[in-house]
User: Fold this.
Amino acid sequence: MAKIDHINASILREVSRDGRISNLDLADKIGLSPSACLRRVQELERSGVIRGYRAQLDPVQTGRAYVVYVAVGLAEHTKAAQDTFEAAMQLADEVTECHNVAGAFEYMLRVEVADLRAYKAFHTDKLGTVPHVRAITSYMVMGSPKDTRA
Assistant:
């Protein structure tokens, strides 16, 4: 595992903002020589600290501008019920994140669709038909003043 000193932390911050930044620009921003910068980035990649790079897509143009966070409660608290639910979420293209959480419900989903009609179809025809689902609470996103996900 690579050590996260202040230089590596700066590298991680910059590549999180712009995964396509050139090594020359990155080195300039963090105050390293290009060769030293490249060695550090490669070590962060090799050690798994940097797991990959992603494109940031326009949600309107991709038909995914309607974002809903969904709390899901299961009727049974068994490993089999969780496995069944998680497998169903892997197959649901609308679900971009699925988190098993502690609290009043078992899962928090991030769902991205075109509009309310598309969300209703997902809610009714997909999520509502998954075995063991007991409760569904939807939180429609009204705006996102901060979103640092790549």
In short: The chain has two domains: 6-46, 66-140. The beta strands are 66-74, 95-100, 107-113, 133-140. The chain is about 40% helix and 20% strand.
